[in-house]
């Protein structure tokens, strides 16, 4: 069962204790060359050495071996070349895992060996992590997941009951989720209680009937990435300026989460989103701005204030030419301002 986000702090420690009790061994991968290994990384391997059971080495470019080992152990741990160390599960080794990290996503180079996974006797993951892909999960039933979530604040597993938006939000708020994906709820508006998700750093919404963004959304002060996919959007409110930590903003109109036979998107000329508010220039941390399939016909000069902006992608808009002020934005690495295609690119000329 997938996790929405990896447990941290006390929840991480409780999950490690559970995994130690329910697993035969745990696996950590070394996926870097020996000459890249640094201080703390080496000391971690040395501390875990007394619990080492065996090591498997998968050579570069040997995908057949990757597939064979992955199938043998039925684990997420083995997906690329590297050295994989198997360690005995016991109280002492579990205490080391709790001392060395604060959450599953800490298990990544350069600080630590990668992708902590716990294997059950006979194979299969009890607990797995693929940190680069933000994938975390446990082998538990729906009933077990509900019991664990009631007991461990910070363990946020994906339940069938999360098809009900209120239950999803209840659990996301309780477990202080920092990532959330909302889709398939047939929303026309987001509930104002979205403001209660105070720990969110990454929010993705895919709801084709969503038309208006509530003020509560812009109270999520820790938000770093916001993705909205919908058929049509009324506007980007000026309140966007309140998301001071936002690094990536992606809005895609003409998106459908449940296309039916004969479904047609609106012509972009009829899309309600026709301007970018000048207040967007206050997002000092913004690095990537993607707004696709809109009736936007001009860019606000306040974009020039975005000194960290690296990617500007306005595919399928109604802008005839790249504004002159973009030439002065030397930090831009990629610019797409196109009328007829998502891929018709006007490259940065710096």
UniProtKB/TrEMBL annotation:
Alphabetic keyword roster: Leucine-rich repeat, Repeat
Top-rank taxon: Bacteria
Residues spanning the signal sequence: none
InterPro entries: LRR_dom_sf, LRR_domain-containing
Protein name, per record: Leucine-rich repeat domain-containing protein
Species this chain originates from: Paenibacillus macquariensis
């Amino acid at each position: 069962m997938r996790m929405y986000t990896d447990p941290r702090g006390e929840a991480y420690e409780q999950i490690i204790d559970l995994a130690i009790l329910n697993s035969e061994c745990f696996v950590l991968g070394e996926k870097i060359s020996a000459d890249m290994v640094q201080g703390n990384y080496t000391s971690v391997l040395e501390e875990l050495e007394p619990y080492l059971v065996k090591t498997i080495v998968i050579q570069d470019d040997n995908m057949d071996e990757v597939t064979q080992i992955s199938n043998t152990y039925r684990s997420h741990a083995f997906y690329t070349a590297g050295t994989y160390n198997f360690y005995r599960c016991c109280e002492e080794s579990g205490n080391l895992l709790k001392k060395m990290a604060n959450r599953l996503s800490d298990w990544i180079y350069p600080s630590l060996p990668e992708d902590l996974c716990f294997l059950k006797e006979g194979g299969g993951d009890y607990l797995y992590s693929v940190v680069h892909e933000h994938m975390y999960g446990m082998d538990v039933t729906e009933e077990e997941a509900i019991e664990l979530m009631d007991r461990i604040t910070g363990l946020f597993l994906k339940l069938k009951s999360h098809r009900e938006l209120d239950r999803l939000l209840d659990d996301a708020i309780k477990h202080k989720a920092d990532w959330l994906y909302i889709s398939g709820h047939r929303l026309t508006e987001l509930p104002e209680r979205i403001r209660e998700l105070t720990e969110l750093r990454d929010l993705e919404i895919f709801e084709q009937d969503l038309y208006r963004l509530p003020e509560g959304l812009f109270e999520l002060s820790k938000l770093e990435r916001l993705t909205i996919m919908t058929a049509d959007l009324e506007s980007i409110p000026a309140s966007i300026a309140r998301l001071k930590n936002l690094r990536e903003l992606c809005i895609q109109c003409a998106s459908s989460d449940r296309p039916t036979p004969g479904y047609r998107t609106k012509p972009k000329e009829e899309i309600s989103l026709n301007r970018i508010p000048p207040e967007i220039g206050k997002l000092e941390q913004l690095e990537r701005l993607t707004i696709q399939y809109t009736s936007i016909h001009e860019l606000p000069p306040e974009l020039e204030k975005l000194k960290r902006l690296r990617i500007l992608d306005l595919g399928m808009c109604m802008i005839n030419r790249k504004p002159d002020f973009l030439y002065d934005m030397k930090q831009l690495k990629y610019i797409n301002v196109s009328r007829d295609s998502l891929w018709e690119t006007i490259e940065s000329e710096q």
